[in-house]
Design brief:
The chain is of the alpha+beta class. Helix content is 27%, strand content 33%. It is built from 4 helices and 8 strands; from the N terminus they run ββααβββαβαββ. Strands 1-2-3-4-5-6-8-7 form an 8-stranded mixed beta sheet. Helix 3 links the parallel strand 5 and strand 6. It is globular. The chain starts with a strand and ends in an 11-residue tail after the last strand.
């Protein structure tokens, strides 16, 4: 599935599509930058391409989406959904992750990715999507999630220590589909 967005006279079209094995080198490079330079993730050592490919396969094996944003043939962002927690009672709750290539923020890539991910996840059995955001100062991610109906439900204070400082984790949440308005079929 390929979803494109652009307006006349604007920046090149953003194509949102399912990530493939061939995309994993670009995905790993995007994520490695965030691991080494940012607080959006609390990982401190970039995972290998093989590890990123295994993470993609794990999401797909659960029927979840793993998407990339492509502009003029280059992968400039990616997102995916993963189980929020492994215990069975959490089976209807998923967590989203969105990462954009260095120097390509604020160009609509994150919105295109998150919007497509939400649509895909609403088509499945999931009822809640949670965003675990690295750093209370990550205003771009907080704003992106608010734009898509996420509400701040709490902040874990000083739970991470990266780059020589304590880092908070805001938790945001939104309903998917009927949310908790009725019982799931299974």
């Amino acid at each position: 599935m390929n979803e494109s967005q652009s307006s006349p006279g604007s920046a090149p079209a953003i194509a949102i599509r399912d990530a493939t094995e061939a995309d994993m080198a670009a995905v790993q490079a995007i994520y490695a930058h965030h691991v080494l330079k940012g607080l959006a993730t609390f990982e401190e050592i970039p995972p290998s391409i093989e590890e990123m490919a295994a993470r993609r396969r794990a999401a797909l094996d659960l029927g979840l989406s793993y998407l990339v944003a492509e502009v003029e043939g280059s992968v400039l962002g990616y997102c995916y959904a993963a189980p929020f927690r492994p215990r069975p009672a959490y089976r209807y709750a998923i967590e989203d992750s969105v990462y954009i290539a260095e120097d390509f923020g604020r160009r609509g890539l994150g919105a295109a990715l998150l919007g497509a991910l939400i649509v895909r996840c609403e088509a499945g059995p999931w009822r809640q999507m949670v965003a675990v955001i690295g750093d209370s100062g990550n205003l771009a991610s907080i704003a992106l999630h608010r734009r898509f109906g996420f509400e701040l439900v709490g902040t874990l204070r000083s739970v991470g220590f990266k780059f020589g400082r304590w880092v908070d984790t805001p938790i945001m949440q939104r309903a998917l589909g009927a949310g908790d308005g009725d019982r799931p079929a299974v």
